[in-house]
Amino acid sequence: MYKGPRHILSENRKTGWSIDLPLKGHCRPTPNCSKACYAKRGPQSWPLPVRKHLWMSQYLAGPDISRLIDECRHLRAVRLSGSGDLLEAHVPNLISLAKECHKTRFWGMTRKVEIAQLINNARLPNLRLLVTVDPTSTLDTWNHRGKLCFGPRHPQDRVPRDSRILAVFPAHYSGRVESGMTRHQKDCPGVWHETSGCLACGRCFSWW
Ligand code: SF4
Q: How confident is the model at residue 159 (pLDDT cuts 50, 70, 90)?
């Protein structure tokens, strides 16, 4: 029987440390998100990571997150839903986690407005979510009152002039930006390989 991973957090070169979650039963993708999903292919789709993501989701909804608190406490930032998306059942423990690890910034993106509201309404100084939008997002998502990020951006997409949008993610596959892509001023520098990663950039978790 699987007893859980040695390290609860996942790590990758761009994002740093992250809490990775399953796609199935968790994501509510737009048509564009579904077509460009990075976690459906590549390392995050391999059997061992998929098993870990499932375990992580159950753990994050469970009664004891002390191991996770120990792993996060000394880190500068931890990305939420590095793959997949959050469930409402995760919210109470995420709030507890941020309270216990007050020097760590917990940040990330969700496609679910109601989850962003629950997390952001906790008004903790070290816990925030952006809502991700794209041209196929519903009006309800676009009407979110908080901060946004836009992606995937395809070459033909127009990004609205909207001060809520902090970062734009050009569509990219296996580290290569989709061909024909021009530059947008709010593009994530990580996608263009112009920063060593999110910890060096910080745009998505330095806005509050
Ligand atoms: S804009 Fe910066 S912080 Fe946000 S995802 Fe890109 S590299 Fe990371």
A: very high
For residues 182 and 131, what is the distance between their CA atoms, to the nearest angstrom? 24
Q: Where are the alpha helices (DSSP H) in 61-203?
A: 66-72, 91-100, 113-120, 139-142, 198-201
Ligand 1 centroid to Cα of residue 202, in Å, is 6
> Any residues with Cβ below 6 Å from ligand 1, and which?
167, 188-190, 195, 198, 201-204
Q: How far is the CA of 43 from the centre of ligand 1 (A)?
A: 20
Q: pLDDT per residue over 29-62, tens digit each?
A: 999 999 988 888 888 888 899 999 999 999 999 9
Map out the domains of the chain as residue ranges.
10-205
Q: Which atom of ligand 1 is nearest to the CA of 205?
A: 3
